[in-house]
Amino acid sequence: MRIVAIANQKGGVGKTTTALNLSVCLAERGVRVLLIDLDPQANTTSGLGIAQEDGGSLYPALVGGMDPRRLIRSTRLPSLSIIRSHQELAGCEVELAQSGNHLGRLREVLSPLRHSGHFDYAIMDCPPSLGVLMTGALAAADELLVPIQCEYFGLEGLSKIVNVVQQIRDCGANPGLLLEGIVMTMYDARANLAQQVVSDVRSYFSEIVYNTIIPRTIRLGEAPSFGKSIIEYEPAGRGAQAYRALAEEFMARRAAAAQSAAA
Questions:
Q1: What is the value of pTM for the model shown?
Q2: What Rg, from alpha-carbon coordinates, does the chain have?
C-alpha cells in the first residue's frame, strides 16, 4: 500500500475536494482506496455523507494504541473505505506534541494497514496548518500531492510546503518523502492571473505539475453539502470530468514509474 498525503498549509485551496474526489475516481476504476480524514474539521467525512462519531477518528489509535484496522468503515463505493475524522483529533496536536515521538507516531499507527494487503492506496486529507498532524502525515507518507489554487497567494503557499518537505527529509523523519505532484485547482480561464500562475508554477516545477487542471465550478462547491462526491452529484459536469482525468493521470504516472523501476 502506498500512502499519499494531500496537503497544503494554506486553507481554501481545494485540498479536501481533491482528496475526496480523487479517492472516489480511483475507487470507480476498481483501485482499493482507504481515505483517511486527518482534519479535525472533518469536511472529507461529511462530504461523503458520513456521520462523525466519538472515537471514530484516528485519535484512539494515535493516543490510546487502538488497532487502526478497527476504525475502518465502508462507503457507498465497494472499493472505497474511510477512517473518519472528528473534532477530538484536535486534541492530538497537544498530546502528540508532548510525546517523545510525535513525528513518527502516525507512521507507526499506519504500519499494520500498510502491510495488510487490503488496500492499494491510503490517501490522507491533512489539516491546513503546519501542526503535528500535518507534519506527522508527511513523515508517514510515501508521497505528497499538493493542490494549489490558481491565485497569487497559492505561489507563496507552495514555496512554504516545499521547504517543509525538505525539513522532513533532512531531519531524518522521512528521507524518502517524494513531492510527487502539484495539482492546480480553482482555475478560471477568463482570469489572466490564473493563467499566469499556472505558467509560473510549470516553469519552476515542470516535471511534477499535473497536466489536468481542476476548474472553478459552482457544482464542486455544492456537492459536499449534499454528502456526495462530484462524481455522484454531477457525473457529466466539468468538475467530474476533471477529477476523472486527474485519477487517470495519477495511475498513468505510477505505471510509468513501475516500468522505469523494472527496466
A1: 0.94
A2: 17
Contact status, residue 33 vs residue 75, Cβ threshold 8 Å: no
Which three-class secondary structure state does DSSP give residue 186?
Answer: strand
Is the backbone of residue 42 left (phi > 0), alpha (psi -120 to 50) or beta? left
Q: Dihedral of CA 17/179/164/1: which sign? A: positive
Give the helix/strand (H/E) hosting 185.
strand 178-187
Per-residue pLDDT tens for 142-198?
A: 999 999 988 877 777 788 888 999 999 999 999 999 999 999 999 888 878 888 888
Whole-angstrom Cα distance, residue 222 to residue 208? 29
pLDDT tens digits, one per residue of 108-144 = 999 999 988 899 999 999 998 888 899 999 999 999 9
Tell me how far apart the alpha carbons of residues 249 and 1 are, in angstroms, rounded to a whole number: 19
Query: Cα torsion at 45, 143, 18, 96 (round to 10°)?
Result: 30
How far from 70 is each of 73, 82, 126, CA to CA, in Å?
A: 8, 11, 21
Predicted confidence at residue 254, as pLDDT, reads 85
Rounded to 5°, the CA angle 130-136-142 comes to 115
Residues 6+ apart with CB under 8 A from 163: none
Pairing outcome for strands 33-37 and 178-187 = unpaired
Residue 102, SS3 per DSSP: coil
Q: Which domains does the chain have, with CATH numbers?
A: 2-262 (3.40.50.300)
